Amino acid sequence: MFRLTATTVKDAMQSSAPRSDIVVQGWVRTRRDSKTFSFLELNDGSSLRSLQVIAKDSLPNYGEVQKITTGASIAVHGDLVASPGKGQRWELVADRIDIVGRAEDSYPLQKKGHTPEFLREIAHLRPRSNLFGCVFRVRSRLAFAIHTFFQERGFVYVHTPIITASDCEGAGELFRVTAIDPASPPRRADGSIDYTKDFFARCTYLTVSGQLEAEAFACALSKVYTFGPTFRAENSNTSRHASEFWMIEPEMAFCDLQGNMDLAEELVKYLIRDVRENCAEDMELFAKFVDRELLARLDFVLDRQFQRVTYTEAVELLEKSGQKFEFPIGSGLNLQSEHERWLTEKHFKSPVTIFNYPKQIKPFYMRLNDDGKTVTAMDLLVPGIGEIVGGSQREERLEVLEQNMRRHKMNPAEYKWYLDLRRYGSVPHSGFGLGFERMLMFVTGVSNIRDVIPFARTPGSAEF
Ligand code: 4AD
Ligand code: MG
After folding, report:
1. How far is the CA of 389 from the centre of ligand 2 (A)?
2. Nearest protein CA to atom 23 of ligand 1, as residue
3. Which of the residues 20, 240, 368, 431 has an alpha carbon 20 to 30 A from that of 87?
């Protein structure tokens, strides 16, 4: 009875002709009884829509069928016939219904809509709701599109380590990885914990970025990308920050900041176009229930050229805006999300790439510009979210890189392998990181990062 080759609801709904003797398996969304038969809405997650099943009272287990409740799993054998009812082309007339797993009365998902906040508390069941089915089908498609984009352009996919000894972004937002017994840690003479006695004989952490290792591979395979989980122990409880998120990091040898910005813009447009073309049904649900302007905004972004301004120009625009901001603006200060949103939503009304930031607010690896004050950083901002891409041209000159490290209070000796890349055949190279969940928020209109990750990890929360 159970088979992976059973007909999916999606295939049944798209059938071009009636079909006899098919099996469809899934979960019951609703059941209602009429005089001589029962209607069941069957969903298997292959599409947003459910298949209507007709269970006639002539079924041998009709009494059992009438006890099926929302959430139960069933396998239906029968014929796909044209539906006389409104709203669907096909329905499945059952000649056999196997009740695979009943659902207890406490099943929390009911036909009426639930809020995303409520659904977050039942993250293990929410993929069975319409909204989250759509989100996670689009997430899967977006991941596929990312690989297609890079593979078609000759990039090599590199798996960078998850456990690492380096703090790439230098922000100290690291989760420590240790096998030391907290009850009796090995200690140095001064009482501090001796991590040389730890599992890896050094301090280790969950990676915040695969960039440094990707650079090593770009300096061999020329064009590479990573796509994996990254971790930040950043205690910011916002709708755009997660402690565990996925990042796509291309890294290209023989590439400068211009080439880097070009690629980031091309990637963002490619991904929007891909989900517009391949997830039409899911996208319509977002447009209907999540964000009415979504499709128009995405199409507008596709049609328009992205804007580019330097950090200095952006600061001038903000200062002249006449707008009251909560956080101060000024040369040398980081742009806050309210500033980023003003630039994309109010001023440019389109995505904008800001480049050449002051060196003191950016990490050690970015290439110093000739002015000695700014670095070749770039951030791509989009309306509604702010930053979705952060990247730079990398400092390829050994001495300048060592100076940058010392300025950032880093010990160059600990980064010998990274500096070696500048000792042996150094090349100008560039790359960026695209936040996968931020991109997903942008294409779906879903406004909280917790609702585009299967099981979100945020400060104070790691259930499931
Ligand atoms: O700007 P970030 O910190 O850049 C880097 O990590 C570089 N090493 C990337 C590179 O050049 N290879 O992060 C890159 C992107 C951000 O633009 C944002 O989209 C996302 O990662 N991001 C987060 N997404 C969700 N939750 C968080 N806490 C995030 N922090 C960054
Ligand atoms: Mg950034």
Report:
1. 7
2. 435
3. 20
Q: Residue 183: is its pLDDT beyond 70?
A: yes
Helix or strand run (H / E) with residue 280 = helix 280-289
In percent, the amount of the chain with pLDDT more than 70 equals: 100
Nearest-5° Cα angle at 358, 354 to 361: 100
Average pLDDT for the chain: 95
| Residue 406: pLDDT over 90 | yes
Q: Indicate left, alpha or beta for 326 from its phi (over 0: left) and psi (-120 to 50: alpha).
A: alpha
Per-residue pLDDT tens digits for 44-96? 999 999 999 999 999 999 999 999 999 999 999 999 999 998 888 999 999 99
Is-contact 434 264, C-beta < 8 A?
Answer: yes
Query: Which letter does DSSP use for residue 301 in this model?
Result: H
Residue with the smallest CA separation from ligand 1 atom 7 is 433
Who lines ligand 1 at CB under 6 A? 168-169, 209, 211, 232, 234, 241-242, 245, 247, 249, 387-391, 431-433, 435, 437-438, 449
The SS3 of residue 79 is: strand
Whose CA is closest to atom 18 on ligand 1? 435
Query: Above pLDDT 90, what percent of the chain?
Result: 93
Mean pLDDT of 373-378: 98
Alpha-carbon gap, residue 277 to 315, rounded angstroms: 37
Amino acid type, 451: D
- Give distance in angstroms: CA of 209 to centre of ligand 1: 8
How far apart CA 336 and CA 15 sit, in angstroms, is 51
Alpha carbon of 301 to ligand 2 centroid (Å):
21
Which amino acid belongs to residue 6? Answer: A
Q: Whose CA is nearest to atom 1 of ligand 1?
A: 390
Shortest-distance Cα residue to atom 28 of ligand 1:
241
Which ligand approaches the C-alpha of residue 243 most closely? 1
* Three-class SS state of 208: coil
With 80 as the cut, is the pLDDT of residue 331 above it? no
Q: Is the pTM of this model over 0.90?
A: yes
Residues flanking ion ligand 2, Cβ below 5 Å: 390
Please name the residue ranges forming H helices in 40-158.
Answer: 62-65, 116-121, 130-152
Q: Which atom of ligand 1 is nearest to the CA of 387?
A: 17
Per-residue model confidence (pLDDT) at position 110: 86
**Strand runs labelled E in 331-439:** 352-358, 374-382, 386-393, 429-435
Three-state DSSP state, 446:
coil
